[in-house]
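Example record for the data management plan.
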Amino acid sequence: MSDTTETVGRLLPAIAPSVLAGLYQHRLLTTRQIHALFTPTAGQRWTRKVLAALAQRGLVDRVRGPGTLSCWYLTDAGADTVEDTGPRGEQRRRVPTRAQAEGLLKRHTLAVNNVGIAFVRAARQRGDEYGSDSWRHEIAHPISQGSVRRPTQLVVADALLTYLQTGESGALVMHQRFVEVDRGTERPADQLAGKLARYTRLRTYTPPGDHNAEPLWRNYYRAWPHVLIVLADQSPARVTQRIARVLALYQSDPTKGNRREIPFSFVTLSDLVAHGPFAPIFTSPTHAKPVDWLGQPPPIRHTARPDKR
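Corresponding structural encoding:
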């Protein structure tokens, strides 16, 4: 164990290793996001003290985030500490430089993490299992076999979330979703529709020479993860237009071929943060009215009939 690790373990608050592991997993987090994930029962002042202590020891650094928020990321020393001591959700090192933390992907990364935090809050309220290590960024799957002249084609999800729901009998039900965050400024509608078409290819893709004849995704998932498209930083009128255009382009995408269409739904980030994933705020091509993230409509409310006596 390094001297730095011994110092961290001896002097920093007990929550500090979890904060470091969260930054290792999610790359960039605002003070508010860190508070929501790791110190929800304490004041934000305590969260800022923890972060200041980590920064003083050279384990984290910050840049200016949206508005007046601070946006935190690990230094190399902080990443070394996590890898030496754990715990961490996954073992792939993706430590952003300061330039990357200040760059164009900052808002996108923070938006993806806001999606994850919305599910964390819901799980706490419902007694389900979903925490800071329950979503992973940039999950890639091949949809073609590469060659010397032609690289392997990939579909890369912005995130994959895994949610364990507690059933009425106490049994756990696993739900997994691919997440695509769409801010409306990073790619035109045809590119988002094209990505949905690539997910459609993934659902049927079997590597050449695989005599098992099972699609590749079955090696990783118990059931096909539906795709959640989260629309951020867009006006209501823009959201409506965006959804209509993506649906029209997806339906007519020639690369989709005759494959069976995949299940997906749209939701705005503002609604997801405000109401949580179990509210009927998701728009799906297969449902006439809004549903929750599991495809369930809102419960029917029975009004009492007036007494005619």
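Summary line stored alongside the record: Residues 1-9 have pLDDT under 50 and may be disordered.
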